[in-house]
Amino acid sequence: MSTSVVRGVGLTPEILDRLREIVGAEHVLTTDGDVEPFSRDATPLFRARPDAVVLPATTAEVADVLRLATETGTPVVPRGGGSNLAAGTVAERGGIVLVLTRMTVVQEVSADELLAVVQAGVTTSTLADAASARGLLYPPDPGSRTVSTVGGNVATCAGGLRGLKYGVTRNYVLGLEVVLPTGEVIRTGGRLWKDVAGYDLTRLLTGSEGTLGVITEVTVGLLPMPETSRTGIAYFDSLADAGRAVTAIIAGGTLPATLEFLDRACIGAVEDFAHLGLDRDAGALLLFGDDGSPRDVVESLDRMAAACTANGARGIELATDVAGSEDLLAARRCSLPALSRLAPVTMLEDVTVPRPQIARMVDDIEEIARRHDVVCATFGHAGDGNLHPTIVFDADDHDARRRAEAAFDEVFGRAIALGGTITGEHGVGAAKLPWLAQRLGADQLALLRRVKAAFDPAGILNPGKLGS
């Protein structure tokens, strides 16, 4: 069973006039110059021009737009900051791109209830700053936090550098305000950390990539801000040694706030870009850190450093204060911009494997890259097995693109064979769609389509994504 989309040629003048009545003429964009920035997101090689870009300011406006879209069979693609890396907000079937970046109110930060309520267009860093001002922590920490929106984070279940200790976005979503494709507004969950009344629609909508409803408001859980944090770097001759250190760190009873790695190619690119004084001769770099009370953090870093030394670390650097920790974290945060300088196209993917398979997966990625003659560097979240193999090439070199795509085809298949998955945090979107059936199987994919049809009987919401 699959949903269907009825779409005419573009949008009729009547539909455009009704959209202008709903959100105001200045918030309906149709000219090439205005629409072009919304024809793509942060995913390379994917581009499709929508017929219109609509920027609502209220939940009621979103509901009116979706009601009109269902009535006229017009595809709608919800979008936040457009920072996703799976082509999840590319309007491959035209229609409307519904941009929620005008909905930017932090409505509440409650220290008593340890929660915040924000509109969907609030950026992740704005939410984190608002929480911090009250002595609270919003743990999800995606790399694009300065531009990614909270609604987009929920739609993709974004991860980040703190995932091992604190979890990902879904672990902090308490409640949602969502507009269904037919225009109904529902509230799932609420302000409670415990609530098992009915199906968990909050969890279902988290990670649904804009295929089931449009998120307009989010209630998130917060934590007390840790007293301090510190970070260290360990260098290894090989990623296999770094992988053994990761196993030893966790087996020793430490659950780090940060446990990230860069391979040799990534170390070189980052050093060329940021001049951080990294050891270019190392085969791998392990970034480790923790937060909490000053005494606990010192003890935790000492244990992690000892585990690295016992497993062949060739050198260790420990930050002495928060500022120094931020300098070390910069090595991980600037990996993507550093690699993007190597060639016009930077194809960043993510796969996840069980933690004991990390070194084997990276070895396999390197072998696949050599065999397909592509330039590939790998970095990622060592603590939870989430890897980011990144291939760079010239966009005008069609053979290079073919080789890159063939290499990633093998990478995804290898991750599944090792008990892993095709995406740990970027989402499926359009980019990973060819491998979704291989990951889920036919029966589960058919169930996804039935769920989609229940929420979106006309099939207008982000059609073609998640197998719909």
Provide the β-strand percentage band: 15-25%
Largest sheet, in brief, is:
8 strands, antiparallel
CATH topology of the largest domain: Uridine Diphospho-n-acetylenolpyruvylglucosamine Reductase, domain 3
Distance between the termini: 9 Å
Number of helices: 16
Report the strand count. Answer: 19
Task: Bin the helical content.
Answer: 25-40%
What is the CATH C level class of the largest domain, in words?
A: Alpha Beta
Which architecture of the largest domain would the CATH scheme give at its second level? 2-Layer Sandwich
Structural class: alpha+beta
Give the total of domains. Answer: 4
Mean pLDDT: 93
Layout of secondary structure:
Elements: H1 13-23, E1 28-29, H2 32-35, E2 52-54, H3 59-72, E3 76-79, E4 96-99, E5 106-110, E6 115-119, H4 124-132, E7 136-137, H5 150-156, H6 163-166, E8 173-179, E9 185-189, H7 201-205, E10 214-221, E11 223-224, E12 228-236, H8 239-251, E13 258-263, H9 264-274, E14 284-292, H10 294-310, E15 315-318, H11 322-333, H12 335-340, E16 345-348, E17 351-352, H13 358-372, E18 375-381, E19 386-393, H14 398-417, H15 436-440, H16 442-455
Parallel strand pairs: 2-4, 3-4
Antiparallel strand pairs: 1-2, 5-6, 6-10, 7-11, 8-9, 8-10, 12-14, 12-15, 13-14, 13-18, 16-19, 17-19, 18-19
Helix pairs in contact: 1-3, 8-10, 8-13, 13-14
